Structures are given as C-alpha cells and as structure tokens.
Amino acid sequence: MTQFYFIRHGEQDWDIVEKHNLKGQAIDLIPLTQNGINQANRAAKDIRICGSDIIICSPYTRALQTALIISKNTGIDLSVEFDLREWQSDLTFDYDSKGQLIELWHDYLLHNGVYPQGEVKPWETKENLKKRINSVLIKYSNYSTVIVVAHAEIFASLISTDEILHCSILEYTQN
After folding, report:
1. Which residues, including other chains, have CB under 8 Å from residue 37's CB and lie 6 or more apart?
2. Per its UniProt record, what InterPro entries does this chain match (predicted)?
3. Which helix (H) or strand (E) holds 62?
4. Continuous segment of H or E residues that includes residue 37
5. Which of 38, 52, 86, 95 could form a disulfide with 145 if both were Cys (CB 3.0 to 4.6 A apart)?
6. Which pLDDT score is estimated for 21?
7. Cβ count within 10 A of residue 23
8. pTM for this model (two decimals)
9. What is the pLDDT of residues 131-145, one digit of tens each?
10. CA 123 – CA 107 distance, rounded (Å)
C-alpha cells in the first residue's frame, strides 16, 4: 500500500496578479512569496517525508516552486503531473480577476461541488476533481512513499478537513 504525503504549496504572491493585471490562466503563473519559500524549506525538513521515493506535483508555478525546493533539500526526484492542477474554477478559462475567481469559489462551496439539478456551472465538480486526482495517484501505487505537492482543494476532495495551511503535510493512503 502506498503512503502519500500531501503538501499544499507555499504562500503565493497575489500582489503580482494586481501589479501585472493578470487574467485567466496567467494567474496560475504567480510564484511564492519569501514567506512561501521559507514554508517550503521548513516542510523539506519534516522527518515524515525523508526517504520518500518520488515527488509529484501540479504544473502551476506555486506548486512547482514548492516541489523544487523540497526536491533540492531532500534529493528526491520530481515529476510534474498535469492532472494535479488546481480545481478548475472556470472550465472555459475566461475568468479575469481574483474577484471573479472568489465568486466562482463561493458558488462551488454553496453547492458543495455538485451542479444543481438541471443546471451547468462553469466550475469543475468535486466528483470530476476527485476522479482526476485519483487517476494520478493510481499511477504511483507501485511506490512505497510519494510526496504530492499541489493545492488545497485537490486534497480536500479526498480528505475531510477544515483547513489546509500552506506547506502543511497530510498523510493519505489511497483505498
């Protein structure tokens, strides 16, 4: 049975979004703050992840940067998995502001990630997210211990928890 260690990316620099007026997928390019870098360095020293077989991560900059810091500090190889990308708030990739992103997030939460009967929303359902993530984890089921660096909502789709802090480490065994 594979032991997964889920690590949420470090704190991202939202100021860059405003400064550069980033829209849509460009928002996914923002890097970590200095605090986020420090969080990733601390996570890399956690004894639970020492000796892991591989690090897999989301292709988003904040997750990649976090995973690279952990890889550098631990010497564990890293593989990028496209399907570990963040929950898709807008499947058309047309959202154009942090405010709209927050609106879509609130709508998702209001409906618990399920489209109301007879309606189609722009966001990815919780069930689709869960299937996407599980399809990635299954690919690594031949490993003993895997570090997964990605996003809070990805992990929340698999684990019931109130809040997932930046660079927190959650243990997960796939059923």
Report:
1. 10, 65, 69
2. His_Pase_superF_clade-1, His_PPase_superfam, PGM_Phosphatase
3. helix 61-74
4. helix 34-44
5. 52
6. 85
7. 15
8. 0.93
9. 999 999 999 999 999
10. 9
Rounded Cα gap, residues 81 and 45, in angstroms? 23
- Cα(166)–Cα(107) distance, integer angstroms: 23
Q: In terms of Cα–Cα distance, which of 81, 70, 90, 170 is closest to 133?
A: 81
Q: What angle do CA 84, 69, 13 make, to 5 degrees?
A: 70
| pLDDT higher than threshold 70 for residue 40 | yes
- What backbone phi and psi angles, to 5 degrees, belong to 98? -60, -35
Closest-CA residue to 153 (of 58, 72, 81, 80): 58
Residue position matching structure tokens 């890889």: 71
Residue 175: per-residue pLDDT: 65
Q: Which of 135, 2, 125, 7 is nearest to 71 (CA)?
A: 7
Beta-carbon contacts of 85 under 8 Å, excluding residues fewer than 6 positions away, are 28, 58, 59, 60, 150, 151
* Contact residues for 70 (Cβ-Cβ < 8 A; gap 6+): 7, 40, 43, 44, 49, 55, 76, 147, 149
